[in-house]
Write the structure tokens for this entry.
Amino acid sequence: MRGHDEPIVLGIETSCDETGVGIVRGHTLLANTIASSMDEHARFGGVVPEVASRAHLEAMTPTVESALAAAGLRFSDIDAVAVTAGPGLAGALLVGVAAAKAYALGLGVPLYGVNHLAAHVAVDQLEHGPLPKPSIALLVSGGHSSLLLVPDVAHDVISLGSTVDDAAGEAFDKVARVLGLPFPGGPHIDRAAREGSGAAVTFPRGKYDDGTLDFSFSGLKTAVARWVEAREAAGEPVPVADVAASFQEAVVDVLTRKALQACARYDVKDLLIGGGVAANSRLRALAQERCDAAGVRLRVPRPGLCTDNGAMVAALGADLVSAGVTPSTLEIPADSSLPITVVNV
């Protein structure tokens, strides 16, 4: 390391539609710069992979330069480069991985290809300090709904359960479309739900009592669509706020129930929630309520660290450097289906 005790790591995240570049010194956040192509996807009602890849290409260099400026650093201060190697959109990942290889080679520093989901766990350390060992992590986003046992985020992440169909964030997007709300659906449903009642409509809770730690949101999404269609067919107005609140309540009820079941089953007293849906206000509130009742300590990063960002990649990279993990080679692939049990490649 270049004249300091903790590694300064540049992190690059391009798994979906946001070009994220973060810089950390150990567990201290120095910069977190994001260039989003969300507006370009909104008119399509979802992320278009080719559009995302092109946007990453255009945004990469200025976003890296902006992050360095925000941190008050030069390229020569960087000790290592970390990049999301998967999972994610193949073309989008390729842009980030290629850029990270170039920066690492040009700077003569180690390269670490990391798992996007493990990075969502590691980022909480930038706000709340080192993770308790072990922890349970609930990761909820547009592409993933997963429960993990995390003995050590730099070495060992164990899958306990995942979605068998739609992820929670995906269900938010689809229900928002049914309700005529903009893309991405999560923030708009959260906002609309504040004016409605979560008890107005009883929607199904998939896999609620099945004894597993898996999730299912496809049936819930379909139930909301059928309920709205029935109202419209009868010529009755759709109470958007009540439907949004009731749908949201069904999702967060299942998520928090399964997360606390995992804590009890594995006798773990620390729960971390990460991923884009972790920014949802009702999820945060219900999780806190249920954790308090169960004697479980809850950790949730601030919303800006929940959505995809470069800081989370840098944070996991710093953990790998500090743990003495062997760096990646310049031959690392972009793996769109990288399993959560593989922390780095």
